[in-house]
Amino acid sequence: MEITGRSHRAHYIGLNYPEAAAVFSGAMPVLLPARAHDLDVEGTCAQIDGLLLSGGRANIEPHHYGGPPFPDDEPIDPDRDNVVLPLIRGCVDAGVPVFGTCRGLQEMNVALGGSLHYRIHLLPGKLDHRMPRGDDVTTEEVMGLKHTVKLTSGGLFHSLVGKDEVMVNSLHGQGVDRLAGGLEVEAVSPDGVIEGINLVGAKSFAIGVQWHAEWKPGEHELSRKLFKAFGDAARERAAKRRNGVGSID
Hints:
By secondary structure, the chain is of the alpha+beta class. About 30% of the residues lie in helices and about 15% in strands. The strands form three sheets. The chain has a seven-stranded mixed sheet, with helices on both faces. A two-stranded antiparallel sheet has the order 1-2. The protein has a two-stranded antiparallel sheet with strand order 5-8.
């Protein structure tokens, strides 16, 4: 995300993301700036071995999926939208592993043709999935486990942990509406919100989770194993690149 300060502009990402990728995926994180005007999708995909999509305060602008316009005060990040959405499609085509967390899951769904609900808590029968707010709310309270998700029997997530349900954190206002073609559901919240996705028939690892898997994955079995699987897929990609194979068949 790009932010504007009084004296300078900056790109930033929370430290938990590169730390989780380094420690639990065994990767060397490289941060990609949101420079859509000079993005070379094919060239970028040829040089990276995995794409980790972080969460973010801003939501994907609705014109990318045919949704109604945002209110004027809604935080947006058009530069990120215009970099990440084509980059996801390029990575999928090139066999580059993709792992999306929170906004990252939403980006995967939109990039592949799906749509989003603007505010889940306003829908009939849905819970409020947003983070708690207030001056006295601690980081542990914001990032702590909030609700269960049911894992799809026989799916990847279920096979990794051998459980029907796991607890996850919850810090999102938007969520999947129409699931993109080719994506299958890996996890669902008690109120029916899609919390995990897997791209069917992908050339490599292509997974998204609605929770913040980068938060203390050492204490969360499924998040930890997903980061490991992502790292394993990235190493496979790296080995194929060294051997002159451009994509995973």
